[in-house]
Amino acid sequence: MRNAARNRALMSRHRINYGAASNDEYIRYQSYGLGDPYDRIWEPNITQPIITTTVDIRTDDFDHPPARVMQTAYQSSDSFRISFSLPSGTSYHFTLYFSEISTNVTMDGERVFGLQILNGSQIFGSMTVDLFELYNNTRNKAYIIYAVSPMYIDTAGVASFVFMKQNGSRFGPIISGIELFQFFDNDMSLGTDDNEVETLKHITTFFPSLDIWTGDPCLPYAYNWLTCTNDSRPYISTIYMNNQGLTGKIPEEFKSFKALTQLSLAETSSMDIFQTYHLFCT
């Protein structure tokens, strides 16, 4: 997936495989090579009519879509629309995946469809697609359409992809997969304050039950046992380590957090554990 906005993290909202065999057929990494090389999880969509192939699909594009996704597709005899209800007031990135896998299509012009992308009621982009022609009159090659700039969703809270069979086209539109991502609003290139991160790492070495927590403690989301400030480089503001199976003394390093206003360490065990401790900073 290409960078559509600098220093903004993306959160997956939808990743759909059209033409799945069943509602239980989630696709992710598989060692035999047809699954997702990056272990992305693809939701199944079994909407009929479906076309499939067992022919190897060239998926050497920059996103490397799974071969299993590209070997199936939803194929309409006419126009259709795919819509998603989304949180409004933020921006999104999309990637659409296609491959001409029908042996009935033997020349360009036989499957031609228009594509409109709508952010609410506004047209974000449009194009005409002839997959057979795009790859020099060949089939079984992944073709990707993606947003080159963030798509802002206003108060309507809906993104739609409209596929329109063109006049003279023998076959209707086709789609193999869709990915839809939400941009985080904050610039995340700097991350949480370095000293705060190092202090927290040192504190977690005292408590083995916390060593599963890795990555930036505040971005894109804070660990579920702390909160952070809204600074461009966040600071840790509250820590709630209740019922984490903690033992021993309270590390002095807690005093090093510049913006810490509350520290709660509550345990119910009868072992040598601190019970409840609150630190309020003024």
From TrEMBL:
It is a single-pass membrane protein. Residues 7-182 form the Malectin-like domain. It is found in: Membrane. Its main location: membrane. InterPro entries: Malectin-like_Carb-bd_dom. Gene3D superfamilies: Galactose-binding lectin (2.60.120.430). One of its GO terms (cellular component) is membrane. This is Malectin-like domain-containing protein. It comes from Ceratopteris richardii.
